[in-house]
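To illustrate the input format used throughout this study, we show a single complete record. The first block contains the structure-token representation of the backbone; no residue identities are included at this stage. The design step must infer an amino acid for every position from geometry alone.
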């Protein structure tokens, strides 16, 4: 799923110390039995899983979990585009965005994992372990019902959008929004990192076409958005007969069109290989039936979805190429053929995107099996 770079010895030591303190405070008599690396994703975060067992002494604060996950953070934890928006100033966020957004979300839903402890410098977090089964994995299991699983994820999203209203508590999500400027910034990220050639006239025409999309997206009403609500950031946690969808990596939340997270869920990476166009449209209608019509603004339901999907998939093409070329993570190139195929499908035949569609057909950086 992701790069698994082992935590440095000093980080393991710090993580072990915080876990030990957490066990003493919450589940006295519980001991650490194993420590192992856990896959992360496209970030500066690293994860460790601590296996636990009860000692002879009975825990004082209820049954201890069988394991805990530790998040090791580097940097501010803010999204790349937050610098462009300048929402945190020159010094960055005062609080780790993951913790800030979690504090807002945790009273609203049990889908987010519990935070049990945070180090003083906010670089080490002890979290509830929600397991390793992503929604993508669960939906691909023999006998699984992808429509039902993805539908449940969209039901959860619709409920979250309804509950997540600014309460004045200082949640960072309500201080930044996908507006025309940010949409343009992400389109420029695609042009700069996702296209192989630099014909000035074609790039200027592409930029103008995508700016027109940015203007339409900016006119849509904004709601709380996870920003990376995809099948690898949602886990299916099974306990007994109960299977719950858990939401991870919400630290980049902001305000966006209601269909933004829907587009993320149904078009990210290789998802269209499982969720074809017809199924995606059924799921979009299912989601739309659960939200007030005014959240879509003047756009038709399917049009709002496809505009958000186009914007996001182009952002991903630029982002994955950026991660490979600038951040030294070449494995993201392997994901690009599927992403580029979705981008081509969404742009092809759409009025006003003729140059963008041509560039996607001929000049996109799309991995080993796509046009270079």
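Output of the design step:
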């Amino acid at each position: 799923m992701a790069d698994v770079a082992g935590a440095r010895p000093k980080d393991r030591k710090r993580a072990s110390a915080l876990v030990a303190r957490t066990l003493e405070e919450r589940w006295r008599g519980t001991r650490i039995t194993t420590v192992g690396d856990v896959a992360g994703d496209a970030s500066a975060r690293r994860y460790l899983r601590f296996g636990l067992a009860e000692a002879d002494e009975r825990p004082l604060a209820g049954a201890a979990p069988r394991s805990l996950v530790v998040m090791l953070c580097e940097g501010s934890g803010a999204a790349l585009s937050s610098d462009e928006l300048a929402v945190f100033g020159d010094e960055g966020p005062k609080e780790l965005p993951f913790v800030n957004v979690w504090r807002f979300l945790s009273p609203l839903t049990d889908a987010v994992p519990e935070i049990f402890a945070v180090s003083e410098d906010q670089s080490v977090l002890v979290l509830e372990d929600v397991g390793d089964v992503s929604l993508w994995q669960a939906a691909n299991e023999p006998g699984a019902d992808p429509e039902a699983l993805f539908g449940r994820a969209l039901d959860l999203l619709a409920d979250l959008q309804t509950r997540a209203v600014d309460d004045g508590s200082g949640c960072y999500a309500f201080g930044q929004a996908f507006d025309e400027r940010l949409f343009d910034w992400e389109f420029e990220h695609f042009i700069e990192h996702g296209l192989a050639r630099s014909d000035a006239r074609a790039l200027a025409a592409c930029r103008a076409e995508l700016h027109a999309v940015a203007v339409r997206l900016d006119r849509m009403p904004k709601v709380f958005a996870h920003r990376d609500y995809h099948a690898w950031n949602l886990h299916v946690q099974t306990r007994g007969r109960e299977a719950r969808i858990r939401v991870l990596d919400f630290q980049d939340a902001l305000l966006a069109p209601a269909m933004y997270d829907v587009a993320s869920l149904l078009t990210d990476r290789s998802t269209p290989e499982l969720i074809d166009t017809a199924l995606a449209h059924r799921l979009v209608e299912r989601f739309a039936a659960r939200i007030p019509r005014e959240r879509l603004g003047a756009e038709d339901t399917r049009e709002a979805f496809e505009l958000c999907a186009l914007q996001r998939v182009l952002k991903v093409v630029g982002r994955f190429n950026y991660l490979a070329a600038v951040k030294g993570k070449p494995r993201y190139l392997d994901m690009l053929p599927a992403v580029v195929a979705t981008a081509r499908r969404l742009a092809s035949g759409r009025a006003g995107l003729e140059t963008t569609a041509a560039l996607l057909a001929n000049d996109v950086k799309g991995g080993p099996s796509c046009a270079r």
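Structural context for interpreting the output: Strands lie at 30-38, 46-54, 67-72, 115-118, 124-128, 222-225, 234-239, 242-247, 254-257. The chain has two domains: 9-128, 135-362.
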